[in-house]
Amino acid sequence: MREDWRFRLREQRACWTAAALFVLIFALYIAKHQTGWTVPVLTTAANKGVLLAIVAMAQTLPVLTSGIDLSVGMVFVLANCLASHLVVGTPLQAAAGVLVVLAAGALCGWINGAIIVYGRLQPIITTLATGAVYFGLALGLRPVPGGDVHAGLADALTGALPGGIPAMLVVLLAVVLLVWVPFRRSAVGRAALAIGSAEAAAYMSGVNIGRTRLVTYTLAGLLASIGGLLLTFVTYSGEASAAIGGVYTLNSIAAVVIGGTSLAGGAGSAIGSVFGALVLRTIGDLLFVFDLEPLWQPLFQGVILLAAVSLGALRLLKVDNRLDLFK
Amino acid sequence: MDPVLELVDVSKRYGGVRALDRAQFACAPGRIHALLGENGAGKSTLIKIMAGVVQPDEGRIVLEGSDRRFVHPQHAVAAGIACIFQELSLMPHLSVADNICITNPPTRLGLIDRRAQRRVAEAALARAGAEDIHPLAPVDSLSLSRRQMVEIAKALSRQPKILILDEATSALTAADVQRVYGLLKRLRDEGLAIVYISHRMNEIAELADECSVFRNGRHVATFEAGSQSDAQTVEMMIGRDIAHAFPPKPPPRAAAETAPPALDVRGLSWGGRLHDIRLAVRAGEIVGLGGLDGQGQREFFLALFGVLRGVTGEVRQGGDPVSAGSPRQAKRRGIGIALVPEDRKTDGLMLPMSVRDNLSFAALDRLSRAGVVIASAEVEATAAMVRRLSIKAPELGDPVATLSGGNQQKVVIAKWLMNAPRIVLLSDPTRGIDVGTKQEIYVLLRRLAEEGAAVLLYSTDYAELIGCCDRVAVFFDGRIVRWLAGAELTEHALVASALNLTAETLH
Question: Distance from the CA of A158 to the CA of which of A22, B21, B241, B423 falls in 20 to 30 A?
Answer without folding.
Answer: A22
